[in-house]
Design brief:
There is one protein chain. The protein has 115 residues and is mainly α. 72% of the residues lie in helices and 0% in strands. The protein has six helices and no strands. The protein is globular.
């Protein structure tokens, strides 16, 4: 299924948030491959922080169980942004997100270039 313009914008916004502007992107560069990489970062961040109280609160908002990141981006984007803000504001959470972002930065940049 092709990404809608709204989903492309959301993935672009996530890239800018997660990588704090250090990765150049635009909504027109967002492909399925790019979204897959961002999804992997979200999955790894979740797995690292799944027992933290902020993550448990986020899970309650999205129905009580981790779901595919594409569905989170599509249906729970505001809750995702709230969770990511909590992650960025906590040293413990930030370690989870930073490690996932570091693991996937090079593949993301290549995917954004269409490679």
């Amino acid at each position: 299924m092709a990404l809608s313009m709204e989903e492309k914008q959301r993935y672009h916004d996530l890239i800018q948030s997660i990588w704090s502007g250090s990765v150049s992107s635009s909504p027109s560069q967002i492909t399925e491959a790019v979204a897959d990489i961002v999804d992997s970062v979200l999955n790894q961040s979740y797995q690292c922080s799944e027992n933290f109280s902020g993550t448990l609160s986020f899970l309650a908002v999205i129905g009580g169980a981790w779901i595919l990141p594409r569905n989170i981006v599509k249906h729970y984007f505001e809750a995702l942004n709230t969770w990511l803000s909590a992650v960025e504001g906590s040293v413990t959470y930030r370690a989870c997100l930073s490690q996932a972002a570091l693991n996937w930065k090079s593949p993301l940049v290549l995917a954004l270039m269409g490679l």
